[in-house]
Amino acid sequence: MSDQHKDKLSRRILVRNASLAAAGAVVGSLAHATKAVAAEGIERIVKNDRINQSVCKWCYRKQTLEELCAIGKKMGLKAIDLIGPKDFPTLKKYGLASSMIGTHSLTQGMNNKGNHAGCIAKIRESIDAAADAGFPNVISFSGNRGNIPDDVGIENAIEGLKQVASYAEKKKINICLEYLNSKVNHKGYMFDNMAWGVEVCKGVGSERIKILYDIYHAQIMEGDIISTIQNYHQYIGHYHTGGNPGRHEIDETQELYYPAIMRAIVKTGYTGYVAHEFIPVKDPIESLAYAVRICDV
What we know:
Shape: globular
Helix content: 40-55%
Mean pLDDT: 91
Strand order of the largest sheet: 3-2-1-8-7-6-5-4
Number of domains: 1
Structural class: alpha/beta
Oligomer: single chain
Largest sheet: 8 strands, parallel
CATH architecture: Alpha-Beta Barrel
Low-confidence stretches: 4-15, 18-37
Distance between the termini: 28 Å
CATH topology: TIM Barrel
Number of helices: 11
Strand content: 5-15%
């Protein structure tokens, strides 16, 4: 092994060990504590604060929203992801935002003109909720391919999103079209390559139509994560994390190196949210603490 490779390996081990130590300091011996005590024992992890970190509640089914808010706030998180209006009071109690608000179906989306009326109505409803609460983003999806060619899907998505883009601009809310993989999790999903989403954004021509760049999904479909961020960051309005393979912890068990990815995001001048969307298989709070630590670059 060359000295250069040894240095790189040493740096990675150092980051991992420091992050594990930080996570341990944060959660202490909470594995045997009650949930109420766990939140009280959390210490702040975020120090650099150059990445606005969030976490997806659906990945933490054993924790109530109240518990996750209390723990996340103390760690230094700024939002909970994919949370709707009924839970806004809980978020605001802890001074947290909803970094992404749901809208329409994932499989029946903007690539099909027949879905436009229903999708647009739900997008407008969520835009209103976001604007009223002071939150920045609502989600949208391409939908599945079915018999629709990709180029027609692009044209249809442009046509549909143009119908709601001016409303998003007026309300100052981003509509973020999510990139998902069609190999493992979402068979048939159309927006499974960055070029598709970029063409839609260009075609709509609104600063409020963006891409939700899910790093886990993008790694499965195309890889080349950092170069993609560098080349297309102007079209990205939101990020999701996740370990590949498996969509589990973003630690040494998977192939993506998130500290470097976060540094690349920072260099683009991005000021939006990065939301953790991995499903923990280890202690969930320790895993979240680790993720927050290594992404605080």
